[in-house]
Design brief:
Helix 2 packs antiparallel against helix 3 and helix 7 packs parallel to helix 8. The protein has eleven helices and eight strands. 54% of the residues lie in helices and 14% in strands. Strands 3-2-4-1-5-6-7-8 form an eight-stranded mixed beta sheet, with helices on both faces. By secondary structure, the protein is of the alpha/beta class. Bound molecules: guanosine-5'-diphosphate. The site of guanosine-5'-diphosphate has 18 residues, from helix 5. It comes from Flavobacterium akiainvivens.
Length: 295
């Protein structure tokens, strides 16, 4: 995961580790390399620039030049800053409702349906919950079918209504069904489009308004880099979602989305998807991710 970024950051610190006497020029060069590494990982220019400015200020504040191991101190400062940038402490999903309603949003292909299944499986096996999956994609019968396949695989019931073209109604009926049948979590999988469009936004905003979910999650493909960040912003402007799910972190992603998204929408990344299988879900811990990036 993020091998390229890790390599480049490692090389950046070589500058500091290689010198007998460290000068402020060495520190500046290191930070320049750190910034370049972030830009190469597809982190937005301003975020990368602010990042290195903050690290530089801290390095000055801690008198990095007079410490015994300036290289190690700089690694620590960068690690702390990365952790902060990716979200500080980990936060779970809000399961306080009865049932707790979780609305999934995101573009088509982002991994929404797969993640809905993974989350249902996670809540069932790890949190002892009885989840209900709800198919609200009225445009693609294949999507509804896909959710049924997922549900069968993990032993979770899937609620769908053949022929009903009203996602608000389907979601509301599903919640009634959950209440009547002892389901304590309802995960609503919604329709996505290939790009953000007003019609889709209106539709999911209507569903959101009608069911008042405890948790609205935005699912995004980490491989899409800065596009992921722009899409997140568009969805957040409309839905004011509670958290981000980054999928496909097992792929050849450069890491920019993971690093930037929190600072753009100010919402935590809650889970990551690391594969197509139902078990390929991890709670997102910013500090662990920073640890991994910096080795
Ligand atoms: P949706 O249109 O948003 O519901 O997206 P899907 O759940 O259908 O996922 C789109 C494709 O991405 C499918 O082929 C999934 O198997 C794949 N996929 C979803 N999550 C992950 C993941 O974390 N890693 C990988 N490698 N593939 C994933």
């Amino acid at each position: 995961m993020f091998d390229n970024l890790s390599d480049k950051l490692d090389k950046a610190f070589h500058i500091l580790k290689g010198h007998g006497k460290i000068t402020d020029v060495n520190v500046a060069d290191t930070l320049k390399e750190v910034r370049r590494a972030l830009l190469d990982a597809d982190v937005n220019f301003k975020i990368a620039k602010d990042f290195t400015t903050r690290v530089r200020d801290k390095a000055i504040g801690e008198n990095v030049l007079t410490t015994l191991q300036p290289g190690q101190l700089m690694v620590k400062l960068v690690k702390d800053e990365l952790t902060e940038l990716m979200g500080g402490d980990a936060t779970g999903v809000n399961l306080s409702g009865n049932p707790s309603v979780i609305l999934m949003s995101g573009l088509q292909g982002s991994g929404k349906t797969t993640f809905s299944g993974k989350l249902a499986n996670f809540l069932k096996t790890k949190k002892n919950k009885k989840p209900l999956l709800v198919a609200c994609d009225i445009y693609r019968p294949a999507a509804i079918n896909q959710l049924h396949v997922v549900g069968e695989q993990i032993g979770v019931e899937v609620y769908s209504e053949e022929g009903n073209r009203n996602p608000v109604e389907i979601a509301q009926n599903a919640i009634k069904h959950a209440k009547a049948n002892g389901f304590n979590v309802v995960i609503v999988d919604t329709a996505g489009r290939l790009a953000v469009d007003e019609e889709m936004m209106d539709e999911i905003a209507r569903v959101h308004q009608a069911i008042q979910p405890q948790e609205t999650l935005f699912v995004v493909d980490a491989m899409t880099g800065q596009d992921a960040v722009n899409t997140a912003k568009a969805f957040n402007d409309r839905l004011n979602f509670d958290g981000v799910i980054l999928t496909k972190l097992d792929g050849d992603t450069r890491g920019g989305a993971a690093i930037s998204i929190k600072s753009v929408v100010d919402k935590p990344i809650k889970f990551i998807g690391t594969g197509e299988k139902m078990e390929a879900i991890d709670v997102f811990y910013p500090s662990r991710m920073a640890e991994r990036i910096l080795g």
